[in-house]
Amino acid sequence: MTEEFEAPHHNQDSLEEHLHQVQLLLAKQKLVEDLVHRQGGPRQDLVESIVHKQNIAELQKKLDELHPADVAYILESLPLNERLVVWDLVKAERDGEILLEVSDAVRESLISSMDNAELLAAAETLDTDEIADLAPDLPHDVIQELLTSLDAQKRARLQSALAFPEDQVGALMDFDMVTIRADVTLEVALRYLRRLGELPDQLDKLFVIERDDHLIGVLPLKRLLTSDPEATVAAIMVEDYVSFHPDDDAHEAAQAFERYDLVMAPVIDTQNRLIGRLTVDAVVDYIRKSAESDMLSMAGLKEEEDLFSTVWKAARNRWMWLAINLMTAFIASRVIGIFEGSIEKLAALAALMPIIAGIGGNSGNQTTALIIRGLALGQITQSNARRLLFKELGVAVLNGIVWGLAVGVFAWLLYQNLALGGVMALAMLLNMIVAALAGILIPLTMERMNRDPALGSSVLLTATTDSMGFFIFLGLATVFLL
Fold first, then answer.
1. What is the C-alpha separation between 3 and 124, in angstroms, rounded?
2. Strands 205-209, 179-180: pairing kind
3. E strand or H helix at 76, and its extent?
């Protein structure tokens, strides 16, 4: 069991204040040591050592006062050289829990600065499920040595957790459970809890089991505390409970936690044997990481990026979708090139065509966001996809008529050309329809291909609405105006 810390009672402002204080201490340390070094003298090394120890002691005291999550926030906010200075000052027994709190990209930089002995010591302070969270970032030889050092039960649990992909319940479950028999009284159950002394976090129910850990019900703590102490567990336990299998989809489990307001739930195997539990804190962490991953994917980033990573590494992370953007830009430019003659004859076309593409892109992004959310929540199925398509096309037609008339009137008044206004209005309507179709079909197609619907959807959508917007507007202008 890792060391417990009381949850910090502060907000983002106090977090930023802690960061500011650490940055000031680092700057002070560098400034004072530079001054002492410049002054020289026969006892320069001694003075430098004393000054260094004083500054280090002050900084270390500050770090010791902070919650592991706050230290992680500070590490993520510092450039690499300062981050490693602070990391060296963290007490060794806190390394494991802080590594769990930092982002994957920052964790990589911290682990690369540690030797195998330090990594092994850090992992040994963690629970089995926490080691499983950390394991993908640890060197293979450290994992093997760690498995050797664990007892048989912990080794089996760690191997079980490592066997599941990160998007399955088995990768999120922990093994810190409290079980009880059905035939004991509530008074006996209460005495049992008192003997335990310390209860697992997020515990709101006990698991009622029979032989071979066969789960038959759950006993909510509120029932345990408010019912007759002489009653048996079997008399008041809940037999209709939410449970999960280790190979269940983690996203669906997260939706169940939200739907049923769960704090924790049992994880069982195919024989209904209790093998672990899923807690709300693990679910919240999974949701946060998934949301961050989706946000980065929509921006075209391959993976999470350390804010202070090297230029080379950051550039490589952004290349894939920049390359795709470049290709789509070439396509859009060739569409414009086809109508160079039309643009030369009517210069207003060059000024107006970005409006068609821009509004279409914004409309399509709205549709895409709704579709991705619907897919994430499991609300879109084969039976309702067609109805959703017609509904979004109806929205596109209505918006196309309203805003098409608006831009048409604008173009007419600006250039005193009624036909140009009509072309603008019709082009807006048609591109809004294209945007709606693309906004639905792109994420649905990626979902059917077993790809993340958020992965670059906005990039593909923008390419479609730009190219088609230019083609529709310039094509209509060529036919009706020239």
1. 12
2. parallel
3. helix 68-76
Q: Is 240 exposed, middle or buried (0-12, 13-18, 19+ CB in 10 A)?
A: exposed
DSSP 238: B
Report which of 24, 22, 29 is spatially closest to residue 70, judged by C-alpha positions: 22
Q: Is the pTM of this model over 0.85?
A: no
Condensed to tens digits (0 to 9), the pLDDT of residues 28-85 reads 777 766 666 666 555 556 555 666 677 788 888 889 999 999 999 999 999 999 999 9
**Under DSSP, is residue 399 helix (H, G, I), strand (E, B) or coil?**
helix
Cβ contacts of 387-396, under 8 Å, gap ≥ 24: 388/440, 389/437, 389/440, 392/367, 392/436, 392/439, 392/440, 393/433, 393/436, 393/437, 395/367, 395/436, 396/363, 396/367, 396/432, 396/433, 396/435, 396/436
Q: What confidence score (pLDDT) does residue 326 get?
A: 82
Give the Cα separation of 87 and 74 in Å (integer).
Answer: 10
Contact between residue 363 and residue 435 where contact means Cβ atoms under 8 Å apart: yes
CB 202 within 8 A of CB 264: yes
Q: Judge whether 238 and 218 are in contact, CB under 8 Å.
A: yes
Token couple for 412: 């007419």
What length is written for the chain?
A: 482
Kindly write down the DSSP assignment for every residue of 442-460, as one continuous string.
HHHHHHHTTS-TTTTHHHH
Buried b (16+ CB within 10 A) or exposed e, 244-270: bebebebbebbbbbeeeebbbbbbbee
Q: What is the pLDDT of residue 37?
A: 63
DSSP 103: -
Domains of the chain (ranges, CATH numbers): 12-166 (1.25.60.10), 179-298 (3.10.580.10), 311-481 (1.10.357.20)
Cα distances (Å, whole numbers) of residue 405 to 353, 408, 414: 15, 5, 14
pLDDT tens figures, 190-216: 999 999 988 999 999 999 999 889 999
